[in-house]
Design brief:
The protein is mostly helical and 173 residues long. The protein contains six helices and no strands. The chain has one domain. Helix content is 79%, strand content 0%.
C-alpha cells in the first residue's frame, strides 16, 4: 500500500510525525492525506447522524424526549390523581378499587416498554458522542499538524533571513 501513497504524504508523515506512513493508524493517515491535499476535514456530525437515523431511532428519541420531560411527569401525575379520585371517591367501589391493581398493571406495562426505549436512545446518543469525539480528534490532529508545518515554514524563513543578514553584514566589512 505504501507504493500507492504519494511522496508528499509520506514525507509529511515522516517530517511532522517522525513516523513512516505505514506505521500510522488509519485515522491519522486520513488526516495526513487531507493536510497534504489541503482538504478540509471538518464536517457536521449531527447532519451525518440525522441522515443515518432509522424510524426506530427517531421513535426512541421522541419517546425518550417526551418520557423525560416535565410535560410527561405532570400529565402522568394528573392521570394517576384522576384514576385514584375516580375509583375512590366518585365511583362507589369503582372499576379498580384500592389497592388499584389495574393501575399498577398499566404503570408496570408503561415502565417495561418505556425503559428499553429510553435505553436505546441513550445507547444511540453514546454512539453519536463517540463519533463526535473521534471527529474532534481528527480536527485537532489536523490543526496540530498544520501548526507544526507553519512552525517549520517560519523556522525556514528565519534561517533564510538570518543567512541573508549575515551575508549582508559580511559584505559590508
Amino acid at each position: 500500500m505504501e507504493n500507492q501513497v504519494p511522496d508528499a504524504v509520506t514525507l509529511l508523515a515522516q517530517r511532522l510525525l517522525q513516523k513512516d506512513f505505514s506505521d500510522i493508524p488509519e485515522r491519522e493517515r486520513r488526516v495526513i492525506e487531507r493536510v497534504a491535499k489541503r482538504i478540509s476535514i471538518s464536517r457536521d456530525t449531527n447532519t451525518d447522524d440525522e441522515q443515518a437515523m432509522t424510524f426506530g431511532d427517531r421513535l426512541a428519541d421522541t419517546v425518550a424526549s417526551f418520557g423525560g420531560s416535565w410535560t410527561f411527569l405532570i400529565l402522568f401525575a394528573v392521570f394517576i390523581a384522576a384514576w385514584v379520585l375516580l375509583n375512590s371517591v366518585m365511583l362507589v367501589g369503582g372499576f379498580d378499587p384500592y389497592p388499584y391493581i389495574l393501575l399498577n398493571l398499566f404503570m408496570s406495562m408503561l415502565a417495561s416498554i418505556q425503559a428499553p426505549v429510553i435505553m436505546m436512545s441513550q445507547n444511540r446518543q453514546a454512539v453519536k458522542d463517540r463519533l463526535a469525539a473521534a471527529h474532534d480528534y481528527e480536527v485537532n490532529l489536523k490543526a496540530e499538524i498544520e501548526i507544526m508545518a507553519l512552525h517549520e515554514k517560519l523556522d525556514e524563513m528565519r534561517a533564510k533571513d538570518l543567512a541573508e543578514l549575515l551575508r549582508h553584514l559580511k559584505d559590508r566589512k
